[in-house]
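Input record (one chain):
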Amino acid sequence: MIARGIYETRITALQCVETLDAGPVYLKRALSLHGAAEEIFLRVSAIMEDMIIEILDTRPAPIPQEGAPTVFKRRTPEQSNLAKAETLEEAFDLIRMLDADGYPYAYLEIGPFRLEFTRAARKTDCLLADVRIRLSKPED
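The corresponding structure, as predicted from the sequence alone:
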């Protein structure tokens, strides 16, 4: 979503049915996609905990979903290449949305080196980030 310029979304608690993500909806809650991936995951966790408690306390009736689903494919490592970013905002978003365990870090290939970026901070006319430098092809 962040890659598409979407910074606000909703977490949906839905009834499990045979088709993935097709069940009726119990609750929806707003979620900000600002901050690093780990920060977003922590917000998701807290919201989900509150939603579980609310569902158990109130037993809401599920409401059928409307409209066509939006399907997001899993990102490939090549999509983490910062060379594709055209603005500082795009570079910032790419770094922060991949800054979590299990995701391929945003990177640049320069000569024999791969520079991996984490912990981005946006300043007025630049970005600050931590950089890990590795050999693109590890030595034997």
